[in-house]
Structures are given as C-alpha cells and as structure tokens.
Amino acid sequence: MTAHEIDYRIYGEEMQFVEIELDPQEGVVAEAGSFMMMDDGIKMETIFGDGSKKNQGFLGSILGAGKRILTGESLFMTAFYNDLVGKRNVSFASPYPGKIIPIDLTEFGGKFVCQKDAFLCAAKGVSVGIEFSKKLGRGLFGGEGFIMQKLEGDGMAFVHAGGNMAKKTLMAGEVIKVDTGCIVGFTKDVDYDIEFVGGIKNTIFGGEGLFFARLQGPGTVYIQSLPFSRLAGRVLASAPRGGGRDKGEGSILGGLGDLLDGDNRF
Q: Quick one: 7-238 is in which CATH superfamily?
C-alpha cells in the first residue's frame, strides 16, 4: 500500500467525530478547521496540498496545491504524524449536523468523487485532487456540482454528509435524479450529468431549481438530506433585519406586532 493503513472509530449520532488511531510513523491529512483533539506526542505539520506525491519538487508541490484554489479550498492542508513509540489518537469533527462516511478506496477501484466541501480527512498517501467536468451542460448549469474533488489511492478517506445520508447502489443503466447540492459523492464508474427539469410551471413556479443531477450506474452514490448551502440559505432567510432582535418571530402578528409595539425600524 502507498497510503498509511489506519484504524478508526466514529462517535456520535447527529454531530459526529472520527477518532483515528495512528501506529508509530503513521499519518493522516485533513482540511484546515476539521481538527478536534489529539494525544500528546502527535506532530502537526502544515503542508502544500495533500503531500501524497514525493520527490516532485517545490514547483510541483505549488502547482498541485494551486489546483485546490479552483474548489475554494486552502492551498494548505494539515498533516498529523505519530513520531513516538506506541499508538496515538487524533480526532476530526463534522462541521455541521450530519454523518461521517468512511470510504475505503480499495473497495472502489482506487477513486471516489465527492462534493468540494465534503472531504474531512484521509490517510497519509491518499491524493486529494479536483475532478473537472468534461460535459458542457454540467459546467454551465451544474452549480455546486461543476468542480468536484477526487480522492485517489488505496487508503481510507472520510467525507461528511449533511443531515441524514442515503446510500444508493445502482445497477448498470439504472438512473437516479438528485438535487445537485444533495450529492455527497459517487464511485468512478457512475455517469454524472445535468438535466433540465422541464415544463413551464416547473420552471417558473417549482421552486426547486431549473436543473437536477442525473446519475447512471453501475456504481454507488451517497446522498445527503441537508446540504450546507440549503442550511445557510434558511438561516439567512430567518435572520432579523436591521441587526436588531426580531420581536415578531413566532407571534401571530409578526411584523405588524412590531409596528404596534413602536418598533418601526426598517
């Protein structure tokens, strides 16, 4: 194996974290901001990209890390190593309510494609790159699904799904249609494209967007019930206006109650 062989355990139900057990000289890489806690004796190091390729030179490292800018991620990742004798643990937490999905890349032919913000951490040696769309429709209308991340190698990787997670195993030719933001990831043989919803009423009044993702098997697809973009949109829509406390929230009168109460700020 080129990737480090790590052991892990996932804790929690709705706000999960994954504890990774590192043997001496084993390591794990993670996105900045996902770290939760670690045992004394683990060495932490900031690296360009994922550190999966050795002896590629400084320029090669910069170019490889620079591709991550296209996914909106940082140039840097954080690596955690166990340099001592004996086992040590390091833990990484979900960024918002949902499920952590362990991905054994050896079971999926060495490659898994996921949403750009789904990746949490992986064994040292797993390559974290970008998956460009080769189809015009996907590029123009895919939204969140245009540029995705690809995880390659023979180790363990961990991705995060918002809300609840559904795992769909598609047979050859079997098709499933999904909201583009609800895709967590899929195996390399799944054919992924964007399809127009269709119909004038659906387009104007549907409220579900003009396009959805069409995924065709064979392969495995992971779907999330609460993408972060949807959660953030609801939070922003419910935020009080003008920076003040929304006293009408939850009342029968709502905004009219604010006016009767003398709170006529706009």
A: Mitochondrial biogenesis AIM24 (3.60.160.10)
